[in-house]
Amino acid sequence: MGRYIVRRLLISIPLLLVISFLTFILINLSPHDPAELVLQAQEVPVITEELLVQTREELGLDQPFLVQYIEWAVACLRLDFGESYVTGKPVWSILGPAFFNTLKLTLVSVAVIVLLSIALGVICALREGRLVDKSVRGISFFLTSMPSYWLAALMIWYFSVKLDLLPTSGMDSLASYVLPVIVIAISYAGIYFRFVRSAMISNLNEDYVLYGRACGLPEKKITKHILKNSLQVSVSVFCMAIPIILGSTVVVENVFAWPGLGSLSVKSILSRDFPMIQAYVLVLAVAFVLFNTLSDIINAVINPKLRNDL
Amino acid sequence: MKSSKMTKFLSICTLSVVLVAGCSSGSNTDTGTTTDTGAKSASKETKQEIIYASSKDILDMNPHLYSGSMPAQGMVYESLVENTADGIKPLLAESWDISEDGKVYTFHLREGVTFHDGSPFNAEAVKKNMDAVQNNAEKHSWIKLSTKIVSVNVKDEHTVELVLSDTYYPALVELSMTRPYVFISPNDFKNGETKDGVNGFSGTGPYKLVEHKVDQYATFEANESYWGGAPKVKRIISKVLPQGETTFLALQKGEVNMVFTDDRGADSLDVEAMNTLVESGDYQLVRSEPMNTKMIVANSSRAGNPVQETAVREAIWYAIDRDTISEQIFEGTEAPANTLFSSNVNYANVDLKERGYDVEQAVKLLEEAGWTRENSSAVRTKGGKPLAMSLYYDVNSSSQKVQAEFIQHSLKEIGMELELIGEESTSIANRRSTGDYDLLFNQTWGLAYDPQSTISAFTSPSSYLHTTSGIAKADELYQKIEDVMVSTDEETRKSLYADILTVVHDEAVFIPLTNGSVTMVAPKQLQGISFKQTQFELPFERMHFE
Known about the structure:
The structure holds 2 protein chains of 2 kinds. By secondary structure, chain A is mainly α. Chain A has a domain at 95-260: MetI-like (MetI-like fold, Orthogonal Bundle). In chain A, 76% of the residues lie in helices and 0% in strands. Chain A has helices at residues 2-29, 34-41, 49-59, 65-77, 91-126, 131-145, 148-162, 175-204, 207-214, 219-246, 250-255, 261-270, 274-302. The termini of chain A are close together. The relative contact order of chain A is 0.14. In chain B, the strands form 6 sheets. Chain B has a 7-stranded mixed beta sheet with strand order 8-9-10-1-11-21-12, sandwiched between helices. Chain B has a 6-stranded mixed beta sheet with strand order 14-20-13-19-17-18. The longest helix of chain B has 25 residues, at 2-26. The radius of gyration of chain B is 26 Å and the shape is globular. Chain A: InterPro entries: BPD_transp_1_N, CntB, MetI-like, MetI-like_sf. Chain A: It comes from Paenibacillus sambharensis. Chain A: It is a multi-pass membrane protein.
């Protein structure tokens, strides 16, 4: 098992290299001259050619492309993503707190999503085609179709203003998590429980279930086996949900005034803060690779057959 | 066996979640000393503090740079003199003398004033601050005084002398502005400068910054040793709420209890929402006198774009029904504007060509300029190029969006296609300074700045240079602006201003919409609400709870 994990982690290294290289190239392909952007961001009114040359030198932009990339990549390993063009502060000092704020929100949301999806998936699969199944699917369809900003505003109005139970926004206490987590969970759990449900249903028709029943195993035990086998697909889905939500909280963060990655990334893109955008893309890409690896490892733990696939 | 591995795995996962949560709470950036009561104390019971909603963070509070929130800077820092409805009045300077040639200003400073860190405010501090600003002169080129200051000399502990290269009539007005000529404790300087950041934010103002959680809130506490007497409202919190709907709900709940027009001139609530809050009985709505002109700025130097043509800009001007905007969108709270500056602004009472709402005239202008409808298509073309432009608006302003949609519809009728793009205010400000726009919403800078600073800004790349540089008489215009600022004769000044205003009016680069004011939704019990000459600051120190 240990060897599998090591091998799996080694494979992700070239992947990360490719991603970092692409991130770097993409930004460099942009038509804007970074030196000019820096000067504009500093509100220098008259940008002269000398000033541009001087700024390029300061930023190391006069170096060959590969040298620039290697210097940047090595610095990134130390979480040194350079300085923001706009504020002049180190990128990680701004991105770091925002990242952890969003990560906290994401992890709590994913935990709720996993619990909800499994519970609903199992219930629906066991009652396939019956009223419970139909109504759960109907309601979830309805809820996931609601735009999240609208749902969020409704929830704030009802739970915070009318009932005065929760704060409307901000990140002051544990109670602040409740509404944003519910809004995120509703939009994802409504989709993910279908994976659990359909996996369960297809497993229900497998021979081992028939065999188990024939042997007189109690139904509870059979369900446990089915669930474990069905979770393989879902594990990947759930693991990937973390980076997906990390990268898509902008609407929820805006409504709930959550000081996270979403609003920061939009701000950086609009102000063409290249080091910030680069770091953001890289952090998200690393998150995708990491959680993908994690899901493979979890699956290998559940299903030993997979350990030899590498 | 397997299940025990699973358990191990799950417990590792749980542990990492806890760790991450633990780490991140420590990584929040704090500024200054932390108080035990944060924004949490925002509840209906504690009514003695002001918690105002703002769409963005207070950002960098360095008063010698431009990214910080102006209402926040206005609470913490002060200038030598104050611009009031009755002219320039003393603030940190008790009195001043001006030499006969108008080039030397001698300020007699108020005695016994200290910065928030306890260090004395004296002539030495004034010199250090002024020098720090001048050492970064290129960033302050929009404020013409920065190009005129030759030296700042300490005469004695409380007397300081400002020497200018030319006579410059708006000198005192520009010294009164929220930034950059305000004073921060020299102890906060980095290497004797402020241009690369500062170590703290100790001003002399009525409030001091005690806590700042980036993108969450900033807490200001009353400066008990303020020279003008300790302010009655003891705590002011600026809370970041990016979305107008949330602001409205937070006001209803009482988590925040104030909202006002932000420094970019945008209101996060629409008129209807404000009225609802007032009807609830908890709030009052207070409006300042008209302070500025809200307008669309046209980029006359935009190469290859229809907006370069005077006829197109004039057609836009004619095609907008300002009465409808005033009555329907602002419910009569803002009056229609037909000129860049309303006639009560100094030097702005000038006879200008009248351009009302006249669709036929707009169509005629376009036809004459060669923009025709080929095969009765919806959009006019000229030489195969469509008559299409983009209009940028502030996403945090509910009224700008509605106006943009209304204008888009109006222009469609005359065969003009307008693409609407909503962005954050900082991004729009960036577009204005880089010239990366066709049309965008903007406003004149308000009574304290109009007309001299707004007009100076016509020549500043970070402001309206791109707007004005594409017009035929640009060079002549800039020369006149240069002349008017140094003119000493009142009559010459009048005639120069008249010429300047006529040129930009005829070229229709600033398309006025309405006269805006500062709007404030405040708790019903809050008394003493007033406004300053500048729309960017509020006199919190004069407010008190009943």
